[in-house]
Amino acid sequence: MGRTMIEKVLGAHAGRAASPGDIVDVRIDVRVARDFGGANVVQNIRDSGLGIDDPARTFFTFDCNPGGSDQKYATNQQICRIFARERGIGVFDIDRGIGTHLAIDEGLVVPGETFVSTDSHANILGAIGAFGQGMGDLDIAHAFAHGRVWFKVPPTVKVILRGEPSPRAHAKDLTLACLRRLGANGLLGFAAEFTGEAVAGLDLAGRITMASMATEMGGIIALFTPNEEVLEYCSSAAGRPVAPVAADSDAHYEAEIEIDVEGLEPMISRPGKPEDVVPVAEVAGRKIGSSFIGSCTDGRYEDLQVAADILRGRTIAPGVLLKIVPATDRIWRRCLDEGLLAVFKDAGALVGNAGCAGCAAGQIGQNGPGEVTVSTGNRNYPGKQGRGEVYLCSPAVAAASALAGVIATPESMPARPVLFEIGGGGAAGADPERAAGEGGPKRGQGAGAAPAGDAGGSPEAGPVRPTRLRGRVWVIPEDNIDTDMIYHNRHLAVTDIREMGQYAFGNLKGREGFAAQAKAGDIVVVGKNFGCGSSRQQAVDCFVSLGTALVVAESFGAIYERNAINQGFPIMTADLARSGLADGDEIEVDLTTGRIALPSGGTAEGRPFADVQLEIYRRGGLLQKV
């Protein structure tokens, strides 16, 4: 039987055949830590006494806060710079742009190669037929030190886009159409190969747009077979010929999903959920306060050119803010050389340094309470890009809306911009920081837990840790709880795990008081796709800090699952959130069998720990020595 793209790439880098479900040790061609997470990677390496496997393939990228405008970010960046000088590691500093784009544009990664980063959108590399994966700081520290990581080979689905979209539709509209069909977890645990007439003609920028939002569909990665244009681009960037990678004609797919895009019109995602997608026409006329064009999803030159063509000779609506951030400095300079920056400035836009912008809460792009924003970003979870409402759309819709003062397409802009009403205001609010709580375990010590019976393990396996856990439950019967709800991005610069617990669920509506009420040994029970979104390790470590014994979910986001396993923090897959459990009930969970004893006297079945999960758990974490 033939092989899919992911099976070929992972197999080539594992030195063995790679079939779905196999756990393989994968050689990583390029490994990157960003300015958030980078300092934690450094700390992990120093604390564990590790070296660097290959400095020439190891990099830091400072794309979250290119200005270093926050003291904690500035400190973390400086920690990384010092470490880089000590170990001979390359640094793409605050003037360079988004690390995943640099990996492509600088020829660091070419089709068929592997890349990991502390960026949940590292799967952008799928746009060129390479394997990219966002991982937490423990994984990245391991990759820095050993040049390899363990990985479970995912099954592949083929997504076929049928039909010809409207000329008014862009790559972002195709992406949003896929998100509407597949939902927030429609690709959960899968690699996806995107094909079809609408895909074949996409340029590199369009492929990057689509690949970047596989994360929002729960996917491991979205892969595109490189066309001639992509191969030529990558060969030029790398300074050497590169070969294409494609699935075999008889490759096995878990499923084939057809999505009809015939006549597709501009689409938009309504605030709060990226998958809540409707035609722009359904929300046209909604008054906006700001527009943002940029991010790893739509910050390429081609995206900005679309916006410039709409803005040229016009001025944005009074009272509306237009913020534009190119993905890389090379793109920024091209915009300067070819007159796009003049168009943006003449229209009244603010143009920022290349970087991630509002997604990381570290640069321009955030909005205020009550503010309505249209954005070309990839996420609009509550609080992700500020405290207002965020609609996700294409650069064309974002530019047209900035001119119109309301949500609009270029074809539907009113003759005159819509103004704010005199005397009108926005919602105001405050979200004061809670006082710091008591300390917790240090990184690598694992969570506190109430042992129940045989602890398992052996002296050779390191510290004895219980394999049966008993505790009171917190039941949160919600699906798609993302990492910003678990641990908000405004706390990303925190590096001391003892400080993280106070922020757990601080951005989850109705559960803001969780951290103040939680006790060591508690068990959290949630729904599907828990921990979707960002790659941040803090979304695991905040529970370690609190001494939480276990998280039980119907399913987990792929990166979150890896981060928890590598931290040695117990997680189990089981459908308990809607089983009748109530806050305060006690359950007992056997990690080795998956058996869950319920307060009713009955039992439920969860997924037992896999061998690799149990081995890392017993060691107390991936970087802990046996």
Automatic annotation (TrEMBL):
EC number(s) on file: 4.2.1.33
GO biological process, one term: proteinogenic amino acid biosynthetic process
Gene3D superfamilies for this protein: Aconitase, domain 3, Aconitase, domain 4
Protein keywords: Iron, Iron-sulfur, Lyase, Metal-binding
Compositionally skewed regions (Gly residues) per UniProt: 437-447
Annotated Aconitase/3-isopropylmalate dehydratase large subunit alpha/beta/alpha domain residues: 8-405
Ranges of residues in domain Aconitase A/isopropylmalate dehydratase small subunit swivel: 517-569
SUPFAM superfamilies: Aconitase iron-sulfur domain, LeuD/IlvD-like
Protein name: 3-isopropylmalate dehydratase large subunit
Species of the source: Eiseniibacteriota bacterium
Higher taxonomy: Bacteria, Candidatus Eiseniibacteriota
